[in-house]
Amino acid sequence: DVETWDIDLDAVTSDPAFPGQEVERTAAVGVVGTLRGTGGGRSLLLDGHTDVVPPGDPGAWIADPFVMRREEVDGVETLLGRGTCDMKAGVVASFVALRALRDAGVRLAGDVIMAPVVGEEDGGLGTFELIRHGVRADACIIPEPTDLDIVPANGGALTFRLRVPGRAVHASR
Fold first, then answer.
1. What is the DSSP letter of 118?
2. What is the pLDDT of residues 55-93, one digit of tens each?
């Protein structure tokens, strides 16, 4: 099952918990694909971003950075293009894994949810919108490139507000 929706950017960015963004957007789309389980099992979210940091000076590139190409690098055929490693390969691997499960007829007890999100590179808009949209899972895998190391933690930033009761005074007091 695939669900898409237009993200209400005004509502998201005015939410007091919104983590912020660096890139202004006029539109964004939420996408969730779900391989439905038989019921009663734990769910798994595969969350990967589809955006990339800006390419900088286009003249500094030897080819269009947004067109994937194949080159031999140190004797190995390599795919090159903007975001190929970070993290389009992980998003494609998630999609292929779900398709392989479906095509093999594997029936899991719980749902497997794939969410290719926008806005990870500048604040987390896409994943924040998933939460606002009601997407929930018991566990999450983020197929971020890590030199094949498993990182059982969050290496990102934590944004929060803290309210301390009392009266405002100068730091010297």
1. S
2. 888 888 889 988 989 999 999 998 888 888 778 888 999
What are residue 5's DSSP bridge partners? 30
* CB distance 12 to 128 below 8 Å: yes
- In the chain, the amino acid numbered 43 is S
- Can you read off the two tokens belonging to residue 67? 């067109």
Q: Give dist(CA 119, CA 49) in Å, integer.
A: 7
In this prediction, residues 93-104 reach a mean pLDDT of 94
Let me know the angle formed at the C-alpha of 85 by 142 and 32, rounded to the nearest 5 degrees.
40
CA 86, 88, 89, 94 dihedral sign is positive
| C-alpha span between 132 and 159 (Å, rounded) | 16
Enzyme catalytic residues: 51, 120
Which one of 139-143, 157-161, 167-171 scores highest in mean pLDDT?
139-143
DSSP code for 16:
T
- When pLDDT is cut at 50, 70 and 90, the band that residue 102 belongs to is very high
* The predicted structure's pLDDT at residue 112: 97
Q: Is the pLDDT of residue 157 over 70?
A: no
Cα(163)–Cα(36) distance, rounded to whole angstroms?
Answer: 41
**Residue 144: count of CB within 10 angstroms of its CB:** 16
Helix, strand, or coil (residue 46): strand
